[in-house]
Predict the structure.
Amino acid sequence: MTRTIVITGGGSGIGRATAFEAARRGWAVGVLDRDGESAERAAAEARRVGARRVWSAAADVTGERELIDAFGAASTALGPVDGVIASAGIEVNAPLTQMPLDTWRCVLDVNLTGAFLTVRTAAQALRDAGRPGSLVCVSSPSAFVGFAGGSNSAYGASKGGISAFVRAAAIDLAPHGIRVNAVVPGATDTPMLYFGLDGDALEAERARLRDAAARQIPLGRMADPAEIARAAAWLLSDDASYVTGSHLVCDGGLMAKSANDF
């Protein structure tokens, strides 16, 4: 079955890769991103690789009215939306005792409240139209385990909230035929990992993360965003028609491995 999907955070990283995966399946694709130019570029590439129809817009997931208007415009441009990937997110790290309150609030506002507003907006439209659908949020291993390096309280709390929200939302929306799930990527080679770095600093960090992945992840490498995109697309598809309130973990075996080596 073809789908009409909207992706938040679709201008880069996992969201962008999911737009391309959806396009290769011949789905109609709407790309939302705070950076409108990135969204437009991703939509153009999605058209090139086979999307049935494409549309893009600049939108901030923390803006309630902005999201409602964006989903309305997407439905006008693409047809009724029946799938969503809520992938917009940020990561700002600091030791707990040094975490500014404004930073904590910003991370939770974008990651958790943004996912809530995205899912609620899409679910209201689906319910009002009497249509089934599939909504996918992006969680993280940090929803389930603490990162050994620490300094991850805000991001971990936001992703833990997403995972709890997915389970609760799935129960609320099941009577309407709307499925809600989460994909859980491990270390994925996306711009978020290298935010604020360029030149020699960027290359040094890439080398450090490749080495850490080889030592710590059972599969011995970071994920390509396209691998996470395929998992997210499966959750959107009819192949996952009896899956709701669940987490599809794509972390190279990271959470299966004990940190203790004795």
Q: What stands out?
A: The longest strand covers residues 178-185. The chain has a mean pLDDT of 93. The chain has seven helices and seven strands. The two ends are 49 Å apart (CA to CA).
